[in-house]
């Protein structure tokens, strides 16, 4: 395994880019760190900015998920600069190659998750703390409305508690949207995209239902969570759980009894495998769908978070933020895993906290959102620091 360190060029905080490749010596003169092997050779001059194998845009406050619009040659980024309930959210549209900002759309509610229907050209934005979806016209940026999913409930202390939305997955063929809610118990909502209405609410016997992946050919929705059964298979037509996968490690469906929390999920539709990141043990779990049994585990770094599968290259990508309650001063990385034998091919440093992943349909480009430290004790903490979107060419 090789470990690659990628560092930003010093310069204006709002936009920084760097190249690795044939001009390594020149690149090292611009950065105050050591870099490992290149991803592939880069050119020089102005044209090299858009053709660079690795590009970083430092523009955002409160960056979260990314969605790719390949036909338009753009990417969307969700940001929530503040956790204040009255604060707006934002969706930024960027050029897919240069990461140049093209448009910023202000939303009435904070923006976290993204799901894009490329057939209807509709962007669904998860308003996590408000338990809702904001519906945006992906062509114009016009906010079309909101779909409220969660209903506030009274807690034991008398205060209202709103169920959160988390992952937003789009079924383009049937114009549906699947949304997870990591409560106790967990919940999955299914929304009719044409009508903008909730059609099914599925309550899990497990907890923290968070990750999701949809197999369009089989018409099966898979969600990941904590508890005895870490992965559920759902028939979205019926709105029912039809299968349950388990490691067999957890004793019950409470926080105390649950050994794992499968926070995010990715699908290998052709190979019928599921890849899930366990944030409790910082490992990647590989499940065989036919048997429902784990095939392998791969150790990741501290704060393991997101996962994506690239069928064209048979590679798995996983982020880890590098921090935990016990280790608040670390830095994270992107791990590239061979999809055949599950060996770690390389680890790419993306300081400070790599977060969410998005892959282009052709498997040639990977986007990673990178967050800044929040704690003042972190050595990289800077007040009002900007957060980043990184583009990595995989060819």
Automatic annotation (TrEMBL):
Where on the tree of life does the source sit, at the highest rank?
Bacteria
Return the SUPFAM superfamilies for the record.
C-terminal (heme d1) domain of cytochrome cd1-nitrite reductase
Tell me yes or no: is Transferase among this UniProt entry's keywords: no
Q: Where is the signal peptide?
A: 1-41
Keyword Cell membrane among record annotations: no
Q: Which UniProt keywords apply?
A: Signal
Q: Which PANTHER family match?
A: DIHYDRO-HEME D1 DEHYDROGENASE, PROTEIN NIRF
Query: What name has this protein been given in UniProt?
Result: SMP-30/gluconolaconase/LRE-like protein
Question: What's the source species for this entry?
Answer: Pseudorhodoferax soli
- Tell me the organism's taxonomic lineage: Bacteria, Pseudomonadati, Pseudomonadota, Betaproteobacteria, Burkholderiales
């Amino acid at each position: 395994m090789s470990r690659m360190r990628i560092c930003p060029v010093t310069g204006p905080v709002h936009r920084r880019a760097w190249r690795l490749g044939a001009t390594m010596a020149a690149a090292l003169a611009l950065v105050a760190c050591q870099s490992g092997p290149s991803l592939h050779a880069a050119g020089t001059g102005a044209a090299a900015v858009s053709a660079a194998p690795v590009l970083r845009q430092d523009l955002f406050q409160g960056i979260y998920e990314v969605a790719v619009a390949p036909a338009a040659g753009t990417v969307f980024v969700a940001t929530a600069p503040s956790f204040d309930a009255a604060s707006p959210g934002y969706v930024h549209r960027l050029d897919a190659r240069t990461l140049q900002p093209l448009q910023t759309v202000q939303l009435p509610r904070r923006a976290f998750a993204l799901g894009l229907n490329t057939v209807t050209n509709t962007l669904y934005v998860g308003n996590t703390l408000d338990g809702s979806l904001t519906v945006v016209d992906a062509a114009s940026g016009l906010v079309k409305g909101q779909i409220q999913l969660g209903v506030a409930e009274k807690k034991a202390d008398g205060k209202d508690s709103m169920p959160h939305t988390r992952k937003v997955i789009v079924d383009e063929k049937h114009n549906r949207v699947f949304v997870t809610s990591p409560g106790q118990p967990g919940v999955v909502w299914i929304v009719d995209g044409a009508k903008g209405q909730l059609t099914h609410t599925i309550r899990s016997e497990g907890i923290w239902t968070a990750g999701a992946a949809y197999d369009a050919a089989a018409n099966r929705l898979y969600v990941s969570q904590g508890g005895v059964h870490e992965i559920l298979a759902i028939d979205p037509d019926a709105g029912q759980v039809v299968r349950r996968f388990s490691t067999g490690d957890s004793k019950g469906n409470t926080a105390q009894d649950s050994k794992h929390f499968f926070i995010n999920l990715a699908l290998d539709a052709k190979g019928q495998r599921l890849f899930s990141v366990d944030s409790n043990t910082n490992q990647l779990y590989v499940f065989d769908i036919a048997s429902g049994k784990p095939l392998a585990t791969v150790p990741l770094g501290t704060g393991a978070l997101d996962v994506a599968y690239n069928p064209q290259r048979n590679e798995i990508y996983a982020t880890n933020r590098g921090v935990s309650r016990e280790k608040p001063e670390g830095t994270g990385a992107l791990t590239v895993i061979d999809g055949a034998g599950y060996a770690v091919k390389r680890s790419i440093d993306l300081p400070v906290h790599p977060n969410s992943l998005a892959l282009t349909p052709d498997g040639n480009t990977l986007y990673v959102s990178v967050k800044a430290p929040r704690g003042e004790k972190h050595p990289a903490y800077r007040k009002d620091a900007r957060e980043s979107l990184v583009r990595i060419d995989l060819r």
